[in-house]
Amino acid sequence: MIALIRYTFATVLHTQRYLAPLLLFMGLMGVLTVNGSGPLPPAYASSAGALFVCSTWLTIALMSLDDPSQRAIVVVTAGGRSFTVLLAAIGTALLSCLVLMVFGLLFPLWVGDYVVTTADLLLGLVAQLTCALVGVGIGVLCSRLVFKRQGYALVAALALVMGTLFTKGMSPVNRLFTLMSTTPDAAKLLAPAGVMLAISAVILAASTAATHFVAGRRE
Q: Of 33, 56, 84, 191, which is least surrounded by CB within 10 A?
């Protein structure tokens, strides 16, 4: 698994497919969090939203690094365990999101004027992790393993991202953003945020299983 993750990291760095989602993340952070003040939960909701969009795009890019013939070679090299190759790509996406989460936690504090508490930082961490898990889940479902045509994958990804963000109460992301924008006390949000995090983990697991099933039938 570690070797596969290293291979995926090396490939994405070489192809530079990380640049577009990374620049999008930086741009959203700059627009949404610069010169903020007041309670931190709304600012961290913005950081989590930026990471959500970035993680979706980054995962789709990671899952599409290899064409079918190259992927077949990687699977054979991994001992024929296609699920392990899939998990390595997901692991690479999540590790990349962890790096971005550090920036998402610290950048609002640098450019804004906030009173910071431990509960604020913990809530920001949980919110970003929730959005990263859901974003990676959507990216896996909209990858080349499920959609052969990239146009269909793009439409599906946009529909899922927009639905997740704006369909009221239908996703952990939307529910969490609603709570963070209306409740300034981070301590009161930790329990519901933990529930949203657990739901997002289930969503990622279900997306992974569905993608593996579809890919297995095609292979």
A: 191
Amino acid at site 61: A
SS3 at position 211? helix
Residue of 88, 94, 12, 85 lying closest to 54 (CA atoms): 94
Instruction: Report how far residue 104's alpha carbon sits from residue 176's, in angstroms, rounded to the nearest whole number.
Output: 16
Question: Three-class SS string for 159-178?
Answer: HHHHHHHHCCCCCHHHHHHH
CA distance 192 to 7: 37
- pLDDT reported for residue 152: 87
What is the spatial distance between Cα 173 and Cα 29, in angstroms, rounded to a whole number?
17
Residues forming beta bridges with residue 114, ordered by sequence position: 38
* Tally of CB atoms within 10 A around 19: 11
CB 135 within 8 A of CB 54: yes
Q: What whole-number distance in Å separates Cα of residue 28 and Cα of residue 19?
A: 14
Pair of tokens at residue 29: 């952070």
**Distance of alpha carbon 79 from alpha carbon 76, whole angstroms:** 5
3-state secondary structure of 108: helix
Chain centre distance of CA 175: 17
Quote the pTM value.
Answer: 0.92
The pLDDT-based confidence of 6 (bands split at 50, 70, 90) is: confident
